[in-house]
Design goal:
By secondary structure, the chain is mainly β. It is 0% helix and 49% strand.
Length: 171
């Protein structure tokens, strides 16, 4: 989760300063003693009065959690994009993420399922179903998460052919 510095040979009564630096994707939680009591939430901690036999302090780091969301967007028969609202969230199909909070460096899988009379067209980066085409697979995995992610599953209404046949009347 990070690195620490400042641990060395000190004499009782001398001031000691220790520092912690979180690694990418982590945050610093604090300095703790052996019994689990937080001594300081700051990355830099100074104290004096080192106990005879030494003092052990523990730096705690936490992995950063990122939000991962999948939203369904449907295109009507005339090609108009419609961002799913609460009332129409599943008109064209459903979009979901394997988890809504994903830790730094982990993966998330997005899944799209088209409803009857709709076709899944792909995952896109913009909320109106345009922008960068991320994948055309209904199951889309993003590895090594390092930021919040929002993806949009585009479902398009199927078009059907209506044939009209004129039959003449013979006499």
């Amino acid at each position: 989760g990070g690195t620490v510095s400042g641990g060395a040979l000190y004499y009782p009564g001398k001031a000691v300063t220790i520092t912690a630096k979180p690694a990418t994707g982590y945050s610093f939680v604090g300095w703790y003693n052996a019994s689990g009591t937080q001594l300081s939430p700051s990355t830099s901690y100074s104290f004096s009065g080192v106990a005879i036999g030494g003092t052990t302090l523990y730096a705690r780091f936490a992995s950063t959690a990122y939000t991962t969301t999948a939203t369904a967007v449907h295109k009507t028969a005339n090609g108009v994009n419609t961002l799913a609202s609460a009332a129409t969230a599943t008109t064209g199909g459903t979009a979901s993420a394997s988890q809504t909070s994903t830790y730094y460096g982990y993966s998330v899988t997005f899944t799209a399922t088209a409803n009857d009379h709709y076709i899944f067209r792909g995952w896109f980066s913009n909320s109106n179903g345009t922008g960068t085409a991320l994948s055309t697979s209904a199951s889309y995995e993003v590895k090594d998460i390092s930021a919040n992610i929002a993806v949009y599953a585009v479902f398009e209404q199927k078009a059907y052919t209506v044939s009209v046949v004129v039959r003449g009347i013979t006499s």
